[in-house]
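Section 5: illustrative case.
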């Protein structure tokens, strides 16, 4: 199979307004946060990706560990071996509220950019998720790097059944 051309575009736009109660003609306070990037095909250091991973999972009171250095398969059946992630996203697809999915560094060979099981990152059900973005870090120990000894991410549903998606875009070079 020939090499894939990989492009990753993401846009997260958050807008909020607040106005004092009872003041109909007041000017609302508005705050906007926007993350938007277009990452092109390549292994360069800034805004480039050459691998994509998408996985759909349903865990019932158990864990799932993903190794981002080896063992993952791309959408065309190709073997993936990330050296760095530029975008890591977990989206909970379960609609039941108040279910927490722990997203943590693996017990062995865990990534350094997520908390361990004693202090995991959390993604909450009902449309919740977790997004980590690293558009341009370099070096073997900076940002969302992956290596043979820092490659595992564990998902823990606790005592619940939780469905979720994992999306990762990254490079084969760090």
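Designed sequence:
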């Amino acid at each position: 199979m020939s090499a894939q051309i990989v492009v990753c575009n993401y846009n997260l736009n958050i807008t909020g307004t607040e106005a004092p109660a009872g003041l109909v003609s007041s000017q609302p306070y508005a705050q906007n946060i926007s993350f938007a990037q277009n990452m092109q095909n390549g292994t360069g250091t800034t805004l480039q990706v050459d691998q994509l991973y998408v996985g759909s999972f349903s865990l019932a009171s158990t864990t799932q560990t993903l190794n981002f250095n080896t063992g993952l398969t791309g959408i065309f059946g190709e073997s993936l071996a990330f050296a760095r992630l530029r975008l890591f996203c977990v989206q909970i697809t379960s609609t039941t509220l108040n279910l927490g999915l722990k997203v943590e560094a693996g017990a062995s060979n865990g990534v350094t950019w997520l908390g361990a099981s004693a202090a995991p990152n959390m993604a909450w059900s009902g449309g919740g998720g977790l997004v980590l973005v690293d558009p341009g870090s370099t070096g073997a120990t900076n940002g969302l790097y992956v290596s043979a000894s820092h490659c595992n991410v564990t998902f823990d549903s606790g005592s619940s059944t939780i469905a979720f998606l994992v999306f990762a875009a990254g490079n084969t070079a760090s």
